[in-house]
């Protein structure tokens, strides 16, 4: 880090440290302790105006971010992960995160002019064909068990052991869909890996929809739940910096040399990413770590994320994000920071 001084109006200039090399750099002020992520231009490195930057509190040190250079990245808030019609609890961590997004984070981002990116699973047949076994295993696979003189096709077992109990007890229904038997003998819907048919799902008012193939593009299961879908469609109507939907084909949306997401961020000059969605320790955490490795500023929106994993999994991601990968804040912090910018105008 290079030591440097900057004058703020008529006050005594505080010490400011240049971190990194322009144009990808931060400034650190010791009084008050603040990280400036707005990337002010050399050689002056002028402090950003409170009228055009957001002072955001975090669980370590405060930061300054530039709305035009920032994006709220909402990951995998899709029916497959959230819908109660697929057995997801209405009061589960994912749906609670969705409520925080709808009530606080999305409105705050809109007021500030922060771009919103909906980064979601959306597979093609070609991507399924090229999918590595490690990713296939995470979402289940169709196993074949050989027994005395015959073969039986078993339900998928995912990375969390879902359908494990069904591996020895299953039946073929009239539509040819494998279904797990519960203790009371009623079939329970299962899935057999990425791209497999989920089948019909009964939603409100007894209506039935075809859920489609698992996490494939343009299917019901890969769509947003109604309230979030309405927020996305409202964002598409914004004339300047409308919401963007980007497909991903791995747990991380920023893996490898380039993805549609990384290409979009580079094209738009976005340097600061606020991460939200599900699951904190999987797709959100994986995307955040790849973004960190590639040089983006990473901010985890603690209460706008959720996971089905034990609490220690989220604790680990939050701990490392706060101390290594970036910063951790929450929806109220974003709302307060945005309001402070608006009040200064």
TrEMBL record:
A Pfam family reported for this protein in Swiss-Prot or TrEMBL: Isochorismatase
**Alphabetized SUPFAM superfamilies for the sequence:** Isochorismatase-like hydrolases
- Gene3D superfamilies this protein is in? Isochorismatase-like (3.40.50.850)
Keyword match Phosphoprotein? no
Question: Which InterPro entries does the annotation name?
Answer: Isochorismatase-like_dom, Isochorismatase-like_hydrls, Isochorismatase-like_sf
Q: Disordered: where is this region?
A: 1-23
Q: Which UniProt keywords apply?
A: Hydrolase
According to the UniProt entry, the coiled-coil residues are: none
What sections of the protein cross the membrane? Answer: none
* Stretches assigned to the Isochorismatase-like domain: 241-312
MF-aspect GO terms: hydrolase activity
- Look up keyword tRNA-binding and say if it applies: no
Q: Which family does it belong to?
A: Belongs to the isochorismatase family.
Q: Which PANTHER family match?
A: FAMILY HYDROLASE, PUTATIVE (AFU_ORTHOLOGUE AFUA_2G08700)-RELATED, PEROXYUREIDOACRYLATE/UREIDOACRYLATE AMIDOHYDROLASE-RELATED
Q: Mind telling me what this protein is named?
A: Isochorismatase-like domain-containing protein
**Which source organism does the UniProt entry give?**
Lepraria neglecta
Lineage of origin: Eukaryota, Fungi, Dikarya, Ascomycota, Pezizomycotina
């Amino acid at each position: 880090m290079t030591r440097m001084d900057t004058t703020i109006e008529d006050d005594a200039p505080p010490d400011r440290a240049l971190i990194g090399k322009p144009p990808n750099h931060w400034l650190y002020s010791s009084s008050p302790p603040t990280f400036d992520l707005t990337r002010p231009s050399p050689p002056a490195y002028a402090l950003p105006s409170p009228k055009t930057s957001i002072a955001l509190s975090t669980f370590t040190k405060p930061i300054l971010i530039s709305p035009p250079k920032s994006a709220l990245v909402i990951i995998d808030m899709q029916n497959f992960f959230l819908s109660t019609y697929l057995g997801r609890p209405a009061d589960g961590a994912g749906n609670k995160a969705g409520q925080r997004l709808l009530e606080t984070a999305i409105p705050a981002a809109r007021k500030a002019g922060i771009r919103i990116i909906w980064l979601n699973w959306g597979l093609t047949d070609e991507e399924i064909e090229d999918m590595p076994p490690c990713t296939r295993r995470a979402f289940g696979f169709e196993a074949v068990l050989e027994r005395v003189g015959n073969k039986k096709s078993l339900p998928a077992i995912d990375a969390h052991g879902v359908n494990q109990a069904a591996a020895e007890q299953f039946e073929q229904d009239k539509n040819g869909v494998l279904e797990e038997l519960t203790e009371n003998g009623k079939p329970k819907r299962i899935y057999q890996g990425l791209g497999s048919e989920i089948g019909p799902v009964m939603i409100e008012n007894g209506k039935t929809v075809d859920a489609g193939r698992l996490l494939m593009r343009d299917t019901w299961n890969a769509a947003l739940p109604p309230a979030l879908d309405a927020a996305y469609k409202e964002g598409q109507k914004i004339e300047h910096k409308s919401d963007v939907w980007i497909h991903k084909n791995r747990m991380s949306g920023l893996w490898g040399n380039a993805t549609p997401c990384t290409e979009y961020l580079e094209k738009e000059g976005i340097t600061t990413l606020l991460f939200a969605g599900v699951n904190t320790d999987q797709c959100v955490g994986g995307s955040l770590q790849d973004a960190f490795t590639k040089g983006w500023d990473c901010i985890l929106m603690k209460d706008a994320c959720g996971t089905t994993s034990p609490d220690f999994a989220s604790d680990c991601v939050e701990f490392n994000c706060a101390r290594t990968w970036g910063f951790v804040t929450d929806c109220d912090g974003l709302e307060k920071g945005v309001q402070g910018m608006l009040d200064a105008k």
